[in-house]
Specification:
Alpha-Beta Plaits; 214 residues; single chain; alpha+beta; 8 helices; four-stranded antiparallel sheet
Length: 214
C-alpha cells in the first residue's frame, strides 16, 4: 500500500476502536506504534488521538502491556507498509520511506482525493470526545480495584471505556484515572459523572482531567 493508503486504512480502522486489539492497550498497539516513524497530524484525527494516548505511557509501562495477536487485517497493514529508502536521504515519511518534493506533492494530492471520496460516500461524521476522568476515593483504605470494576460496570449507548491507572495524590491515597470515548449526541458527561458518584461507598468526587474532541 502507498503512504496515503496506509494512513487511510489506519484512520478508518481506529474510527470505531480505542486500541488496535481489544479494550486495553496491548503489545499490538506497540507494534503498530513502532511502524510510525513520525507523529501523525490532526489531519488524521483518529490516528492522532490513538498515537498521543499510547505515547503517554513510559517505556516501562509499554513493556507491561498484555500480549495480543494481531488480526489478519492489521498484520497485512504492517506487511504492506513501504520499505525504507536509502539511508543517506534526509526526509523520512510517516512510515519510514524517503521522498522528494515531487513525491510529497503527489502524496498530498492523494490524501486530499481520498478524503474527498470518503466524505462524499460516508454519512455525516459522528462527533466523539475523548475524556480522562479523575475518580477520587474517600481514603487510602478504599479498594481501588473494586472501584475500577464498578466504574466500568456503567454501560451507556455511545460509551466505550479505555485504559486506567492509579495516580498518587498524597498521604497514601491514589485516585483512579480512567479514559473513555463517548458519542457526544448520546452520552451526557454530567449524567456519566453522576452515575459514577452513585458508588458513594467508594467515590468521593469525580473531576474531568482532560476533554478532547476527536
Amino acid at each position: 500500500m502507498t503512504v496515503s493508503e496506509n494512513l487511510k486504512f489506519l484512520e478508518n480502522y481506529l474510527s470505531e476502536r480505542s486500541y488496535i486489539e481489544g479494550y486495553q492497550p496491548s503489545q499490538a498497539d506497540v507494534l503498530v506504534l513502532n511502524a510510525l516513524k513520525l507523529a501523525p497530524t490532526k489531519a488524521t484525527p483518529n490516528v492522532y488521538r490513538w498515537y498521543t494516548h499510547i505515547q503517554s505511557y513510559s517505556a516501562d509501562e509499554k513493556k507491561k502491556f498484555a500480549q495480543k495477536s494481531l488480526n489478519s487485517e492489521v498484520s497485512k497493514f504492517l506487511d504492506d507498509k513501504p520499505a525504507p529508502a536509502a539511508a543517506d536521504d534526509d526526509d523520512v515519511d510517516l512510515f519510514g520511506s524517503d521522498e522528494d518534493d515531487a513525491e510529497a506533492e503527489k502524496i498530498k494530492e492523494e490524501r486530499l482525493k481520498a478524503y474527498a471520496e470518503k466524505k462524499s460516500k460516508k454519512p455525516a461524521l459522528i462527533a466523539k470526545s475523548s475524556i480522562i476522568l479523575d475518580v477520587k476515593p474517600w481514603d487510602d483504605e478504599t479498594d481501588m480495584t473494586e472501584m475500577d470494576t464498578k466504574v466500568r460496570s456503567i454501560e451507556m449507548d455511545g460509551l466505550v471505556w479505555g485504559a486506567s491507572k492509579l495516580v498518587p495524590v498524597g498521604y497514601g491515597i491514589k485516585k483512579l484515572q480512567i479514559i473513555c470515548i463517548v458519542e457526544d449526541d448520546k452520552v451526557s458527561v454530567d449524567e456519566l459523572t453522576e452515575k459514577i458518584q452513585e458508588f458513594e461507598d467508594f467515590v468521593q468526587s469525580v473531576d474531568i482531567a482532560a476533554f478532547n474532541k476527536i
